[in-house]
Write a structure and sequence with these properties.
- The radius of gyration is 15 Å and the shape is elongated.
- A hairpin with a 2-residue loop joins strand 2 and strand 3.
- A two-stranded antiparallel sheet has the order 1-4.
- The chain is built from one helix and four strands; from the N terminus they run E-H-E-E-E.
- The protein is an alpha+beta fold.
- The chain has one domain.
Length: about 70
């Protein structure tokens, strides 16, 4: 049976905390076989400010986690 993707809505900026909490609960309840991956889609952005190149990661969907 193919697994499905679900979008989980969170408060913007809290995605990493929610991901860690979900991973802990998955391990605690023993459902690793049902949930294979949790991800926060990000992209790398290169920006030049004040003559300095800065690379940072920006979230594609702020406030959402894909499970």
């Amino acid at each position: 049976m193919a697994k499905k993707w679900y979008a989980v809505h969170t408060y913007a900026g809290q995605e990493d905390k929610v991901k860690a909490n979900l991973e802990q609960r998955i391990e605690t309840f023993g459902v690793k076989d049902k949930i294979s991956r949790i991800m926060i889609p990000k992209e790398k952005i290169a920006e030049v400010r004040n003559g300095k190149k800065r690379i940072y990661k920006r979230k594609f969907f702020p406030g959402y986690i894909l499970v």
